[in-house]
């Protein structure tokens, strides 16, 4: 097994070169950890898929989460905007009989009204509530795990300084769902310990989760990265806290 590099330059070069397509974080195994939410989103999604007839996974990424569900609805569709992720999703999901549909990354969905008895989405960039309500069939359910407020704030503010953190409020999500005509039947929040064991893990994470430090590049942040590398080397893992919330809503 190849050895993990330890010098700043080697760690950064390795993390800057690896592919960040898809939504698989297995490259971080042994280099970062993130506590899991207590509700078990994939298990909950699987339970609802087992009862669904026509299902939709919005912003599927590389399809990794949907592909891990034991049984899918007889008709299951996934949408994804970014072409590299869409190719990966097709490879992961076509063998399971899932149709992967290109969307524009913004409303509207390229899908018919009142069609799906289940719509799911894990970590959507944004929840398009009016579109979710439009494509749900009467009595249908939307289940989503979203990134919450102040997620990984310690890492973001290390690079960007204090932030206003006005978005991704679970109460705002409830209000928008209700404004779209949906009934919120479950809303839970969690704050979870996250550790980065080397600077390569930080680089990889910020390259993959691009909205955390917008415009992040190694070149632009090399000075801060080197200082953080020295801090991790001297003091141990950099600790941050991810925020998650689960929301489930039903169309009357």
UniProtKB/TrEMBL annotation:
Assigned keywords, A-Z: Methyltransferase, Transferase
Limits of the Methyltransferase type domain: 56-142
Top-level taxon: Bacteria
Name of the featured protein: Class I SAM-dependent methyltransferase
GO molecular function: methyltransferase activity
Species name: Actinophytocola glycyrrhizae
Biological processes annotated in GO: methylation
Transmembrane segments: none
């Amino acid at each position: 097994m190849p050895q993990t590099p330890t010098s700043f330059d080697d760690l950064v070069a390795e993390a800057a070169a690896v592919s960040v397509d898809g939504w698989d974080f297995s490259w971080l195994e042994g280099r970062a950890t993130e506590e899991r939410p207590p509700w078990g989103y994939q298990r909950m999604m699987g339970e609802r898929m087992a009862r669904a007839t026509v299902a939709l996974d919005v912003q599927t990424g590389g399809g990794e989460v949907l592909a891990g569900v034991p049984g899918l609805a007889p008709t299951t569709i996934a949408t994804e905007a970014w072409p590299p992720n869409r190719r990966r999703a097709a490879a992961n999901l076509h063998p399971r009989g899932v149709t992967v549909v290109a969307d524009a990354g913004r409303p509207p969905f390229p899908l018919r009204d009142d069609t799906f008895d289940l719509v799911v989405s894990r970590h959507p960039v944004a929840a398009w509530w009016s579109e979710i309500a439009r494509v749900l069939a009467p009595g249908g359910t939307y289940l989503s795990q979203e990134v919450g407020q102040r997620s990984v704030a310690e890492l973001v503010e290390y690079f960007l300084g204090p932030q206003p953190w006005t978005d991704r409020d679970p109460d705002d999500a409830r209000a928008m769902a209700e404004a779209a005509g949906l009934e919120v039947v479950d809303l839970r929040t969690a704050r979870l310990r996250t550790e980065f064991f080397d600077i390569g893990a930080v680089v990889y994470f910020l390259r993959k989760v691009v909205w955390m430090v917008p415009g992040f590049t190694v070149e632009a942040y090399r000075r801060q990265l080197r200082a953080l590398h020295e801090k991790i080397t001297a003091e141990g893992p950099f600790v941050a806290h991810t925020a998650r919330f689960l929301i489930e809503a039903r169309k009357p």
